[in-house]
């Protein structure tokens, strides 16, 4: 077994960084959710028309390879459509899919994933960025890009690259394109101090096209939810995120004519719940309701301890009412610790509509908001939480069987993807429940900085009914971000590390790299007859 984790798992067909051609063959004719397809001419023309960047020269600069100019962002492997299930014509082993897709195949996926549509501002991160990855031992430039952008190359226009006569993207050649780009879902600045503009200008043009497409889809008389879901998988623009989430969850109807009446009715319904369930005398509560309220009151101050916004009195009162009412109205599970974390992204996004986008979350002055506005955001958060939990409610029923199944499948998946890590964890007597139970219970929100939670939620909500199974692949991608490090640790070090993973310095590119690897592994394994089948 090779130390780099690139060797085959037992009974599976593996590939390493030397097998680029087979992966390109696997990806040929595929693309990823949310990819904005612009030809090279369309991208350059749009940028030039906006005065952002002069037209590109038609021939490569001396010494450069066609389709691989450093930072040009134009070379790509043929994209097409890459579905979330099985793919016809793919070679399969005993497990029915590609196996051992380890660090050598996916560790550097974030940059390419952003180019291929995983990120909100498409192509905002240059391909081959030198950003420090979670697994510092992973190959930085020759590795295959991750799922939602798996080796689709340096731009979102696979078709444009093919039309220009380019070959597969030379990922390593783009390592020179390392200009710093903010990890936020906003359009980047036009140029850096050196005056270099082509990649960033093109990124802004693509981002503008992406926002325009969101606006067009959401402005239709009847929204095509499947198209919106595909686009939102790669990240929602902050200005449209609140309405996008409401639509994806089914809280708002697709028909534009019905939205206002529906929204008013649901908000009025929640307002009626307050005197019915919450604002009552203690003597009127049952013993179970009293215990539930006591647990909620204990958990609310612990919610997002690093984010002072959630420790303001009005926010804590909103959290308390949402969680208590949800528990009372869902007696099959009742309130369970961890649900308090799941409501925080909703409350932050719905209240954020009333503050300038540039204002940091912890600087929001809630005194400037009326009681009516606060109550509307609270009602929207409650109903969206209900919709989210409807699909994963067995995670919170007695004995939490949904989480137990997910952890079991996670262990099996890790064994197939990175057998050395699985064997090492087993040899050290590390039980997956010891670290991954909380990951699944809180949907990883406690494991990443809170400013990245909304980006995670974009993909979660876009997954819809497939979220429960997709969590297996996300958890595997998260765990294997530190594959090499974990192999050098003993039991105590592993448990301590995984209880508080080193994500403090993570940015959006790291989250997208994780989502991208998860997407690729699902495409490889989801239809394998002997793997991840419901039992």
Please describe what this structure looks like.
Helices cover 47% and strands 0% of the residues. By secondary structure, the protein is mostly helical. α9 packs across α14, α11 (313-329) runs parallel beside α14 (371-390) and α15 packs across α17. The longest helix has 23 residues, at 256-278.
Gyration radius (Cα, Å) is 23 Å
Global morphology: globular
Q: Could you tell me the number of beta strands?
A: 0
Average pLDDT over all residues: 73
Whole-Å distance between the termini? 31 Å
Strand content bin: under 5%
Structural class: mainly alpha
Helices, by number, come to 22
* Main sheet attributes: strand count, strand direction, barrel closure: none
Low-confidence stretches: 1-32, 34-200
Question: What's a quick, concise take on this entry?
Answer:
This protein is an all-alpha fold and 535 residues long. It has 22 helices and no strands.
List the helices and strands and how they pair.
Elements: H1 20-27, H2 40-49, H3 103-106, H4 109-116, H5 158-163, H6 198-218, H7 225-232, H8 241-248, H9 256-278, H10 287-299, H11 313-329, H12 339-342, H13 344-352, H14 371-390, H15 401-417, H16 419-427, H17 433-441, H18 453-463, H19 467-479, H20 483-487, H21 491-499, H22 508-525
Helix pairs in contact: 2-6, 4-22, 7-18, 9-11, 9-14, 10-11, 11-14, 13-14, 15-16, 15-17, 15-19, 19-22
Give structural attributes:
mainly alpha; 535 residues
């Amino acid at each position: 077994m090779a130390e780099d984790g690139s060797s085959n798992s037992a009974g599976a067909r593996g590939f390493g960084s030397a097998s680029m051609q087979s992966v390109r063959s696997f990806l040929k004719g595929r693309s990823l959710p949310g990819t904005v397809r612009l030809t090279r001419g369309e991208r350059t023309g749009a940028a030039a028309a906006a005065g952002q960047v002069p037209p590109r020269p038609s021939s490569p600069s001396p010494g450069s390879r066609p389709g691989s100019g450093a930072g040009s962002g134009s070379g790509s492997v043929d994209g097409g459509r890459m579905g979330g299930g099985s793919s016809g014509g793919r070679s399969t082993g005993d497990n029915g899919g590609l196996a051992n897709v380890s660090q050598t195949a996916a560790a550097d996926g974030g940059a390419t994933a952003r180019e291929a549509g995983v990120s909100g501002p498409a192509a905002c991160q240059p391909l081959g960025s030198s950003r420090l990855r979670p697994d510092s031992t992973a190959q930085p430039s020759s590795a295959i890009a991750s799922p939602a952008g798996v080796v689709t190359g340096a731009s979102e226009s696979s078709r444009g690259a093919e039309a220009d006569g380019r070959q597969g993207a030379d990922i390593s050649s783009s390592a020179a394109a390392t200009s710093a780009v903010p990890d936020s879902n906003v359009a980047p600045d036009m140029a850096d101090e050196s005056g270099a503009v082509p990649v960033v200008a093109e990124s802004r043009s693509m981002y503008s096209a992406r926002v325009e497409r969101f606006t067009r889809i959401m402005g239709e008389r009847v929204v095509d939810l499947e198209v919106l879901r595909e686009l939102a998988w790669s990240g929602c623009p902050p200005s449209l995120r609140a309405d996008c989430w409401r639509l994806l969850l089914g809280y708002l109807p697709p028909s534009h004519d019905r939205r206002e009446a529906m929204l008013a009715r649901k908000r009025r319904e929640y307002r009626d719940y307050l005197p019915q369930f919450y604002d009552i005398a203690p003597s009127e509560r049952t013993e179970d309701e009293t215990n539930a309220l006591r647990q909620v009151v204990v958990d609310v101050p612990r919610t997002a301890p690093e984010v002072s916004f959630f420790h303001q009195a009005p926010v804590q009162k909103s959290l308390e009412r949402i969680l208590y009412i949800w528990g009372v109205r869902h007696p099959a599970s009742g309130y369970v610790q961890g649900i308090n974390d799941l409501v925080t992204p909703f409350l932050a996004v719905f209240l954020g509509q009333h503050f300038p986008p540039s204002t940091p979350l912890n600087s929001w002055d809630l005194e400037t908001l009326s009681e009516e506005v606060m109550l509307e955001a609270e009602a929207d958060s409650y109903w969206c939480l209900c919709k989210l939990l409807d699909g994963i409610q067995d995670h919170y029923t007695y004995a939490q069987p949904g989480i137990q199944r997910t952890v079991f499948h996670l262990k099996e998946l890790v064994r197939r993807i990175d057998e050395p890590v699985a064997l090492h964890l087993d040899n050290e007597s590390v039980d997956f429940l010891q670290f991954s139970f909380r990951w699944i219970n809180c949907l990883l929100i406690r494991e990443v900085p809170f400013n990245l939670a909304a980006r995670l939620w974009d993909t979660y909500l876009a997954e819809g009914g497939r979220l429960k199974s997709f969590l297996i692949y996300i958890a595997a991608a998260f765990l294997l971000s530190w594959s090499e490090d974990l192999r050098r640790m003993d039991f105590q070090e592993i448990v301590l590390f995984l209880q508080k993973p080193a994500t403090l310095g993570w940015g959006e590119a790291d989250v997208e790299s994780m989502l991208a690897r998860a997407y690729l592994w699902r495409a490889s394994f989801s239809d394998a007859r002997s793997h991840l089948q419901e039992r």
